[in-house]
């Protein structure tokens, strides 16, 4: 549930229907037709951030477009992306995002202990040097005011090049926005979250 409530497809105006159609297609393609309940209920109701954006479909289109554009920037593996996402989730503590990435983390190679370490605000000892660079940069971006120091920027360039560095910084910004929205509208953790 969320503070705005869920919108059933029967209540959609034209703008909401267009947004719904885009998201439904995206979810079906992303999950090969086996979309998790946290994103799409059996009756077709959208969950998570998509549910809140159905109340402001114009914003929803931009949200989805930005997320897709950030994801398309080359330079980071799914594991490397997940480091940055988990660091951001540790900052904002969005119930929905934390539970979703407790599921996604292991799927891209994270040990449970490493996820717990990041959620506790410490860099896992198991991370390679490139992963430590991601952790430190993401941690600075979400937890400290001011410019990302050159001493944290330079390792990103060395390990990931300009594209990977752009990907990382945009990714942290995108997830920060999403988690503020999830927290503001009190989007609950999905029912299929791990215990």
Automatic annotation (TrEMBL):
This is Carboxymuconolactone decarboxylase-like domain-containing protein. It comes from the Eukaryota. It comes from Sporothrix eucalyptigena.
């Amino acid at each position: 549930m969320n503070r705005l409530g869920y919108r059933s497809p029967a209540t959609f105006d034209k703008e909401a229907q267009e947004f719904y159609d885009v998201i439904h297609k995206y979810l079906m393609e992303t999950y090969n037709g086996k979309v998790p309940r946290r994103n799409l209920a059996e009756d077709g109701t959208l969950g998570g951030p998509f549910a809140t954006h159905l109340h402001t479909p114009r914003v929803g289109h931009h949200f989805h477009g930005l997320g897709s554009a950030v994801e398309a920037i080359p330079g980071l593996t799914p594991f490397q992306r997940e480091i940055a996402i988990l660091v951001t989730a540790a900052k904002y503590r969005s119930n929905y995002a934390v539970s979703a990435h407790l599921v996604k983390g292991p799927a891209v190679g994270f040990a449970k202990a490493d996820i717990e370490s990041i959620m506790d605000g410490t860099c896992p000892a198991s991370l390679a040097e490139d992963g430590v660079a991601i952790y430190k940069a993401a941690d600075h971006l979400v937890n400290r005011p001011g410019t990302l120091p050159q001493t944290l920027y330079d390792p990103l360039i060395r390990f990931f090049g300009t594209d990977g560095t752009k990907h990382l910084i945009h990714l942290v910004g995108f997830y920060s926005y999403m988690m503020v929205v999830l927290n503001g509208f009190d989007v609950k953790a999905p029912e299929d979250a791990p215990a």
